[in-house]
Amino acid sequence: MSLVSSTALLQTARANKYAIGAFNVHTLEMLQAVVEAAEEAQSPLIIQSTVGTVKHLGADYIAAAATVAANRSSVPIALHLDHCSDFSVIMSCIRAGYTSLMIDASHSPFEDNVAITRKVVEAANAIGINVEAELGKVGGVEDDIVVSERDALLADPDECAEFVERTGVHTLAPAIGTAHGIYKGEPNIDFDRIATIASKVSVPLVLHGGSGIPDEQVKRAVSLGMAKMNVATELRIIFSDAIKQVFAENPDENDPRKYMVPAKQALRSAVLAKMELCGCAGRARDFR
Ligand SMILES: [Zn+2]
């Protein structure tokens, strides 16, 4: 099938209390690995790229590869632009064929975040693609700061409701204590806050910073309303470690296939495990 908007995928996920894994890819092999995992798991899939990867590979190359994958695939696949604050990059990705995007104006004051997000939602609605936005500051939260400071960085549930109402955004990433990268200790997730936000906001919620959250905490967050889980750093590490291992064993290797195939396989296994964890494995059936 063609690439689809992530909106219906994520609404169905939230209604059925599972989350769809959204996996950041940086190379063709990484993209193929996540698609193969989705096929094997019979899972809906969101392929993501960062703005950096769009600049590195080109939105058109990424969209072309994702389109081929979707056309060949029996599971629904969306192509999403992760954390973007640049309107021109958003427009170039829409033009290239992305079916989902994140406008991140979370570092602007609330009123500006509303205005900027509203503008992107209007553009996206014209062609039926998904918009995700962020409230609070994901990744700005460190373990050792005092509670009042931490509170100020997390998303306010009433503001979440007002934000969704005023912007018409399709999916919301509220800061609830997760961070990007790999956690030094355990993440400090505010589960009560997720529950309160979910009670006030009916759109699917997005869990950022999914690398290295203990499995039980992921399941709890998903049960409370998180319908999309972003995983980036962990995948990069697994992919790179597999390549490093090939060179450790054979420093003279010079055939890219010889190190890309094991890297693909390692990534595919890791993505399969995340799909089981999120509960999206087997859920492609929801879209037939
Ligand atoms: Zn993020």
From TrEMBL:
InterPro entries: Aldolase_TIM, Class_II_FBP_aldolase, FBA_II, Fruc_bis_ald_class-2. One of its GO terms (biological process) is fructose 1,6-bisphosphate metabolic process. The keyword ATP-binding does not apply. Keywords: Lyase, Metal-binding, Zinc. It comes from the Bacteria. Binds 2 Zn(2+) ions per subunit. One is catalytic and the other provides a structural contribution. Dihydroxyacetone phosphate binds at residues 181, 209-211, 230-233. The active site is at residue 82. This is Tagatose 1,6-bisphosphate aldolase. It comes from Paenibacillus pini JCM 16418. The lineage of its organism: Bacteria, Bacillati, Bacillota, Bacilli, Bacillales.
